[in-house]
Amino acid sequence: MSSGQPDVIAEAVARDRFLVLPENRFAHAVLQSWESPDHIEPLPPVFLYGPSGTGKSHLVQATVHQLAEVHPDWKTLS
């Protein structure tokens, strides 16, 4: 996704549909902090590690979707 638009990310994958639990609270907070309009580039790399089914892909896709809305001039790599 190089256009900066969330065209390939399903609308169903949204931050408000992510269940924050003690196991993923820190990852959620870090990625949410990136969404501030005051945040400057470059963003630090983050490695999400955990068992299957804990929402890692959902959280990343929701973050990319939100970043594209907050920072439409930013480019993303997929």
How do the helices and strands follow one another from N- to C-terminus? HH
Radius of gyration: 12 Å
Structural class by SSE content: mainly alpha
What is the number of E strands? 0
The poorly predicted ranges are none
How can the largest sheet be summarized? none
| Mean pLDDT over all positions | 74
Give the percentage of residues in beta strands. Answer: under 5%
List the quaternary state of the chains.
single chain
Helix content: 25-40%
Instruction: Based on Cα principal axes, name the global outline.
Output: globular
Distance between the termini: 6 Å
- SS element count, helices: 2
Keywords:
78 residues, globular
Folded structure, characterized:
- The chain is mainly alpha-helical and 78 residues long.
- Helices cover 31% and strands 0% of the residues.
- The chain has helices spanning 25-33, 56-70.
- The longest helix is centred in the C-terminal third of the chain and has 15 residues, at 56-70.
- The N and C termini lie close together (6 Å).
